[in-house]
TrEMBL record:
UniProt KW Signal keyword: yes
UniProt region (Disordered), positions on chain: 18-72
Organism: Agrococcus pavilionensis RW1
Gene3D superfamilies listed in its UniProt record: Cupredoxins - blue copper proteins
Keywords noted in UniProt: Signal
Top-rank lineage group of the source organism: Bacteria
SUPFAM superfamilies: Cupredoxins
Annotated InterPro entries: Cupredoxin (IPR008972)
Biased composition (Low complexity): 31-65
Residues of the signal peptide: 1-20
UniProt-recorded name of the protein: Blue (type 1) copper domain-containing protein
């Protein structure tokens, strides 16, 4: 699941023309200084940034739903961008944690990018996208932005 989420995040960042930094997991690297034969689970010891399981009981926590929206229901090409919670209310701050981010990008001239500490996921500009990715947000400031219209379509989200 972690590898799939990381690969999807990298693919989405690449589609938007952005750059995602490779991780040890995505590059197939092993931790330096590791001794002995390789095990079948190196990914569990080197999760990608933004895709770590939550500490605790060992069972993955259920991801809280969020929706990244560009445009409006009435006008998909409108110069509007927002991150919405499960009730549909705009989000300005969030607690750190794992989120299921659903892109509601119905526009062919906008994209939705979420960028912050260890996270950079985006939709493609030249098409619509209705996909979901799982992201782990650490404390810090995150930006939501439409890359082609960054001067007017941007907002910040504080994660505490």
């Amino acid at each position: 699941m972690i590898a799939l989420t990381s690969a999807l995040a990298l693919a989405l960042a690449g589609c938007a023309g952005g750059s995602a930094e490779p991780t040890a997991e995505s590059a197939g690297a092993q931790s330096p200084g590791a001794e002995g034969p390789a095990t079948e689970a190196p990914a569990a010891s080197t999760p990608a940034p933004g895709a770590e399981p939550s500490p605790g009981s060992g069972a993955p926590a259920e991801a809280t739903p969020l929706t990244g929206v560009v445009g409006t229901d009435d006008d998909p090409e409108a110069y509007a961008i927002a991150l919405l919670d499960a009730s549909g209310a705009p989000v300005e701050s969030l607690p750190a944690g794992t989120y299921a981010l659903t892109f509601a990008d119905r526009s062919s001239m906008h994209n939705f990018r979420l960028r912050g500490p260890g996270v950079d996921v985006a939709t493609e500009v030249a098409g619509s996208d209705e996909s979901t990715v799982e992201v782990t947000l650490e404390p810090g400031t995150y930006e939501i932005v439409c890359d082609p219209h960054a001067g007017t379509m941007r907002a910040e989200i504080e994660v505490t």
